[in-house]
Amino acid sequence: MGYARSTVANCMPDLNDPTSSTSYRPAPTAPEHLNNTGCKIKYSEGKGRGVYASKPMPAYTLLEINPALLFSAEEYEAHGRHTVLDHYTFKWRDGRMALALGLGSLFNHSDSPNVSYSIDTSTESIRYTTVRAVEPDEELCIYYGTNLWFKPVEISDGRTCADTELVDDGWGGLSAVAGEVEASSSSNHVPEDTSDPNAIVPDEDLPFTRVKLTSDEDDEETSEAVRTVQAWAVDIPDPRHTTSALKWLKSSGLDTPTLSHLKRVRKSPTGTHSTLLLTSTSPTIAPELPSDLDLAAPYQLAVPRSAALTPTSLALKNALWPTVFAPRRKGEPEDWSRARAQWACAAMVRVVEEARAARAAGELPIASYVPAPPEEPAWPSYLARDTRVSSAHPLRHAALNVVRALSNSTASTSASIIPATAAASTPPTSAPTKNGQHYLLTSRALFVTHEPCVMCSMALLHSRVKEVFFLVPMQRTGGCGGAACVPKLEGVNHRFAIGRWKTGAGGVSVEGLEIDEDIDS
Ligand SMILES: C[S@@+](CC[C@H](N)C(=O)[O-])C[C@H]1O[C@@H](n2cnc3c(N)ncnc32)[C@H](O)[C@@H]1O
Q1: Ligand 1 geometric centre to CA of 253 (Å)
Q2: Is residue 190 in a domain?
Q3: CATH code for the domain in which residue 29 is found
Q4: Per the database record, which ranges form the CMP/dCMP-type deaminase domain (predicted)?
């Protein structure tokens, strides 16, 4: 908290060792315990007790708010550190020591944590929140930091914490709480912890700085980029019945706000009939129609998922279904919610971790990551390292490798190109392959440790990526504002947003990511 490490750490009892000389022994069975968010206690192989999910949990689920028991550093020095409490104690921001009263004390450590926590000094409490979607029976783990006092048991991908140098994550890393990153959340570029994950984060508190693009940033300027959703529609053979059909629709309960960006009626070009858009809910069960109206059988069709932001996108969307025109003011940036900012921090932590693992394996410390979007947690995510060294291939840059990972996602993958989720081998049909073009990153965000070079930036532009976040600027070679800004160039047919990560934001450090500034990234 790190968990407070003391000079006697090595003399501390091993919670997993029944022969340990301490009087502490893990109980043979976990107590019956289920909190109201669905966390339960179970024994975790080699770790003692742990906290587990009893049901599926979406990303950013608030798991627990635990009061902290605070005591002075002197008390800790004289007593606490000589007891089993040392395993559970961590440093509070003001130098006192703290113990989480509740399940918080039972979260085990993982170097790929699925839970982050934040300290609320005003209420002297700690909030634990999932950072990604969690499966039933999955262990819920936090990140203790780099100075572990025990040998961590292997995590699911076969690595141990000792294999990689890890990031001190201001969102999930206990060491961050120990004051290794700025204590104040705003100076750490971490949005205030409010209970509302939808709260909009002011621009100055975002973990990145937006690189300003002068042109409009609408990402739906080509027909293949138009995002669609399946909806039910019905033809009205006699257009004179359109008003009655509309009246029925309004009272039917089918008329939900999900399609409010679309007109309800489309007239056939010849005027022979009109079509009524019914609903986007239930892809399998056709909506029931009134018997007193002369309507054909309902059918499904693809309609635009959102309003049109530009005249070009309006024309493209109208070709599918009459769409509302809601232009964004030129250069107006997208709002970011707190949940989305947390998702971005977790993604940047993950990609930095991968880059450090790449370096340990003899590669350049560069990695790239396309996480599942927070609003589509079931979509596959992709992770790739730079493999120029091992492949002796000058084009195996991390950003290109991750695009290859996406396009190869139905084929077998190599160790350096990792579908970062189990779902990667069978992407849902609504995932990025939906346009039939497997390299497309339409509507996806890409996190990369080093500013992509001009070549990679151009490739990303072709892939229609929505936004790129990078940590290390590359003044001489970068294509996202360093040597050039590719999405700003005149004549390009797509623009992506760029975020330059703020120093220390989310507890992410650039340590270990040094590369020669002339190397393309
Ligand atoms: C805060 S306690 C966590 C709850 C603890 N497992 C229990 O049964 O009370 C921290 C202790 O859990 C164990 N632990 C936590 N994460 C571990 C991991 N990844 N591998 C092995 N042991 C772990 C270590 O013994 C550590 O000192």
Answers
A1: 51
A2: no
A3: 2.170.270.10
A4: 342-482
User: Can you tell me which residue has the tokens 């190109």?
Assistant: 417
CA of 80 to the centre of ligand 1 (A): 17
Cα 68 to ligand 1 centre (Å): 19
Give me the pLDDT at residue 515, please. 93
> Which pLDDT score, from 0 to 100, does residue 420 have?
47
Characterize 413-450 residue by residue with b for buried, 16 or more Cβ atoms within 10 angstroms of its Cβ, and e for exposed.
Answer: beebbbbbbebbeebeeebbbbbeebebbbbbbbbbbb
Give residues (CB < 6 A) around ligand 1: 15-16, 26, 46-50, 87-88, 105-106, 108-109, 150, 152-153
Q: What is the pLDDT of residues 453-493, one digit of tens each?
A: 999 999 999 888 999 999 999 999 999 999 999 988 877 77
Asked if the ipTM is above 0.95, the reply is yes
pTM: 0.43
Residues 13 and 136 in one domain: yes
CB 178, CB 145: distance < 8 Å: yes
Q: Kindly state whether residues 304 and 402 are assigned to the same domain.
A: no
The boundaries of the domain holding residue 210 are: 205-217+339-507
